Amino acid sequence: MARVSIKTAREIEQMRKSCQLAARVLEFIGPKIRPGVTTGQLDRLCHDFIVGHGAYPSPLNYRPKFSDQRYPKSICASVNEVVCHGIPNGRVLENGDIVNLDITTYLGGFHGDTNATFFVGSPRAEAKRVVEVARKCLDVGIAQVRPGARLGDIGAAIQEYAEGHRCSVVREFTGHGIGREFHEDPHVPHFGVRGKGLRLQPGMTFTIEPMINGGDYAVEMLDDGWTVLTRDRSLSAQFEHTLLVTTSSVDVMTTRQCPLVNSEVGASE
Ligand code: MF3
Ligand code: CO
Ligand code: CO
């Protein structure tokens, strides 16, 4: 059974600060993404930014339920065929790569979780295609969120958009409730059936974060126990926001103040 916490107005006010810091990290790191930079350098820059703003990077030493491994870095950096949970390291980003940076901050007792996929230098056509489908999948998912809607409505909208645009939806990883804990109930699948699943209520906070593959949806994990990649090595892209169900619709708590450099502007032309 899903135990879904309902946040009070006070809690939401606190949580928004964490969410907004996570959004600022993406805005800060975008301009620093270019050929020649390593994912390890991006991790260090984000780590210092987060700690410098009085927060803690939630992934660092994070141990998911049912796992005995701790995550060793402060952000996830997933390049090309890596679907999620790529561990920042000495890998040098090259012209034409895509890289998803997933930022989670812990501030004032609450987590804020957001990610975006960036272009390194000039994107190739296939990279552009998969990234733009992933971006739209998050949008169509968010558009379903309002009191009374079902989780299945979100999943169905995302799945229809992805599959209607020659992409596929990863099954093994979902969005999630978030708040005082990094991963709370409920699971928020990015595929499903309209009218099914948990009914949304005001005060619920959860993420939508569809992982969209250019090829098949099947994934596999590297021996490091974290890095997930597409089985067919097709490109994978992802965007994530932390959301609040309001009395009438949805509030994007990780909303940005300006377009993301190397993702929303200045990269695809
Ligand atoms: N930020 C990821 C998410 O969106 C989770 C990363 S877990 C970690 O849920 F351990 F890999 F950091
Ligand atoms: Co998340
Ligand atoms: Co995340």
Q: Which terms summarize this structure?
A:
single chain; 269 residues; alpha+beta; Creatine Amidinohydrolase; four-stranded antiparallel β-sheet; three-stranded antiparallel β-sheet; 15 strands; 25% helix; binds 2-amino-4-trifluoromethylsulfanyl-butyric acid; binds cobalt (II) ion
Can you describe this structure?
This protein has 269 residues and is of the alpha+beta class. It has a single domain, classed as Alpha-Beta Complex (Creatine Amidinohydrolase). It has 4 helices and 15 strands. The strands form 5 sheets. Strands 1, 2, 4 and 5 form a 4-stranded antiparallel beta sheet that branches. Strands 3-12-11 form a 3-stranded antiparallel beta sheet, with no helix packed on it. It has a 3-stranded antiparallel beta sheet with strand order 6-10-13, covered by helices on one side. The protein is globular. One cobalt (II) ion (CO) binds next to strand 4 and strand 5.
Task: List the SSEs and their pairings.
Elements: H1 9-29, H2 39-52, E1 56-57, E2 76-79, E3 82-84, E4 98-107, E5 110-119, H3 125-142, H4 151-163, E6 168-169, E7 175-177, E8 184-188, E9 205-208, E10 211-213, E11 219-221, E12 228-230, E13 236-238, E14 241-245, E15 250-252
Helix pairs in contact: 1-2, 3-4
This protein binds 2-amino-4-trifluoromethylsulfanyl-butyric acid (MF3) and cobalt (II) ion (2 copies).
One cobalt (II) ion binds at residues 102, 104, 113, 115, 209, 240.
